Amino acid sequence: MQFQSYITPMIKWWWLIVLSTLLALGTSFLMVRDLPPVYTSQSTLLIGKTITNPNPSSNDFWLNQQLTSFYMDLAYREPVTDAAKKALNLSALPKYTVKPLGNNQFLEIDVTDPDPQLAMRVATELARQLIVISPGGAQSGDPARNKFTDEQLTKTQLLIIATEEQIAKKQDEMGTIQSARDLENAKQEIQTLQERLILLQTNYSNLAATSKPAVSNSLQLIGPATLPTVPSGINNYLIMAIAGVAGLVLGGGAAYLLEGLDATLKTPKEIEKALGLPLIGYLMDMGKEYRFSRYVADHPRSMYAEAVRTLRANLEIQAPEKRIKTLMVTSPDQGDGKTSVSVNLAISFAQGGKSVILIDADLRRPSIHKYFAFDERTGVSDVIDGKVKPASALQAWGDGGLSVMTAGDSKEIGDEFFSPEKVEKLLNEVKVLADIVIVDNPPIAVSDALIFASKVDAILLVVRPGSTNRDLAKLMKQRIDDVQGKILGVVLNGIPITKSGYYGVYRYYIPYYYGKENGHEKKEAGLPKKEKVMQDPGRMNPSADRTAKN
Predict the structure, then answer these.
(1) Does residue 518 register a pLDDT over 80?
(2) φ, ψ at 494 (rounded to 5°)
(3) Which of 134, 150, 220, 443 has the least CB density, counted as fewest CB within 10 Å?
(4) What's the longest Cα–Cα distance across the chain?
């Protein structure tokens, strides 16, 4: 039953869950059906030379991390974007992202566009523009300048070698010179050559230093952009699936929310827990076409008639015949079906061989006379006023086992018409005329019902699952307790047994009665469709059959 309480909101509100799921699927389909596939192309750049340095320091890695953040921001700036648009002759660039990879040693440029060719071209150009704008990229981007620098380095190198050779030769010649003057001239020549060598070496070093980008702040393309052939991003079917799951979850959440906001009593356990009373009857919904029907009399072998007989038996077991003479039937609110229960229960008692008096004490909305097509001119109001005796106000029905006292002329009835003394007198006068008196009272919120509740021998509460308000039912129970009314139990009325959801649990409580007569299926005129579906002509219950014929 615990699992049932969790799953039943989903079953009851299945249409809401299905509707929300279909709505989400339909909306997502309309959104993605016209979306073209998109493609993503990537370019990968290496920052600095730390990764190729055999002995990198921690400062090198820290510097690369700072440079990564700088180049990521620079990739979105106008110098790079404007240069890329100009180079590609575009008015706007496709959507792209720049992100670090490999502990911030690499920079990846992802370009996404429905045109795979354009995505590849933009990814390539953005990488090229970042390289050009980097400190080491300006020279590397000018081939003519690089060629000239290499030529000058070669010439300078040859001059350095030639000068060194001249210095060495002059030094060798000094060992053979005899004249002091010639020796002095040789020294001057060597000094001149040495000064020239120093100048050439300085020029070579400066030229070599400026011919290469700075090692710690350079960009190198190591992953050129390629032409994508497979669409990227989330698949349209996956988007629809995610939307469908979201709709399913939202629908399920709405189902539980609606159940949480629903303040009506539903399941037998919930009703027993709320009222603290036993459930002694389960009556199914007979439909609006049987609103004023004496169904037990018209269809004594029906499932509904068997349910009423079970209620009657439970009442007799709960309170022996000698202890119960007056039984009051009431409910928390209008529309719970208390009058239908009163009428059919009275007929069932009469079919069981008892003399029964049924009293319509609901003077504000009398309706018992509609069930029997009786004249309501003389009834309870006339007896209370002392105009007639109770016996004169009774109208016999059927074979005489059941007598009915209608409400009478209640047009001039005031709010204080009933009093405890008048009610007690009425009940004392009628209960000697029959085996049991059943009083159909207005809902307990009306003061008349509380007066009768304090005077009758027993009270039967009628609750309609899924309709009766929980707080109103608790208030009804409290008011009856306040006047010391004796409640026998609760009868659940109007159970829609053909529906799923919460009401499915009542199938375990409703008595099934099927019959066969002389080997032929018994056909009952006017049997509701819901009972026709549940009939089983292969079963019969002779004992119940005898009860129905009483």
Answers:
(1) no
(2) 75, 35
(3) 150
(4) 175
Please report how the helices 116-133 and 58-74 are oriented relative to each other, as an axis angle in degrees rounded to 10. Answer: 120
Q: Per-residue pLDDT for 524 more than 60?
A: no
Residue 290, pLDDT > 70, answer yes
Residue 363 near residue 417 (C-beta atoms within 8 A): yes
Under DSSP, is residue 495 helix (H, G, I), strand (E, B) or coil? strand
Is 198 found in the same domain as 52?
A: no
- DSSP for 128-169? HHHHHHSTTHHHHT-HHHHHHHHHHHHHHHHHHHHHHHHHHH
Task: Please check whether residue 524 is in contact with residue 302, taking contact to mean a CB–CB distance below 8 angstroms.
Answer: yes
Residue 368 lies in a domain: no
In a 3-state reduction of DSSP, which class is residue 314?
Answer: helix
One domain, residues 331 and 309: yes
Judge whether 544 lies within some domain.
Answer: no
Q: How many CB atoms lie within 10 A of CB 77?
A: 10
Q: Above 90 in pLDDT, residue 355?
A: yes
The contacts of residue 117 (CB under 8 Å, 6+ apart) are: 227
pLDDT attached to residue 545: 38
Assess whether pLDDT exceeds 70 at residue 248: yes
Residue with tokens 């399913």: 248
For residue 485, give the amino acid letter: G
How many residues are recorded in the chain? 550
Q: Return the amino acid letter for 178.
A: Q
The parent domain of residue 62 ranges over 39-136
Do 30 and 120 fall within a single domain? no
| 112-161 residue pLDDT tens | 998 999 999 999 999 999 988 887 654 454 667 667 777 887 888 888 88
How many domains is the chain partitioned into structurally?
4
Band of pLDDT at residue 429, cut at 50, 70 and 90: very high
Cβ count within 10 A of residue 467: 16
